[in-house]
Specification:
By secondary structure, the chain is mainly α. It is about 65% helix and about 0% strand.
């Protein structure tokens, strides 16, 4: 994944956080700003989701993160991609 794509992902993550204030949101935004590579941003998605969920609720946070999650396609090693969840039946 190139620097251009990395920059777009970083900008998208910062954009959803920018609408909100507060110390915890700003701390997550700072970590996003200084993430060194796409893998670091991939792992920060959960922190962004938690910060948004605390403010807007989980459903709204999931909607906001959906577009960001799709930006990672093709840029991560196969083992790092989203996993399909399977339900267990008895």
């Amino acid at each position: 994944m190139g620097e251009n794509q990395l920059g777009r992902i970083r900008a998208a993550m910062l954009s959803v956080l920018q609408a909100h204030g507060g110390h915890s949101v700003q701390r997550v935004a700072q970590r996003v700003r200084f993430a060194s590579d796409v893998e670091a941003l991939w792992y920060l998605r959960q922190d962004v989701m938690v910060a948004l969920s605390a403010i807007d609720g989980e459903a709204a946070a999931r909607r906001q993160m959906k577009a960001i999650n799709s930006m990672f396609k093709g840029g991560l090693p196969g083992s790092m991609g989203p996993r399909a969840h399977q339900r267990f039946t008895h």
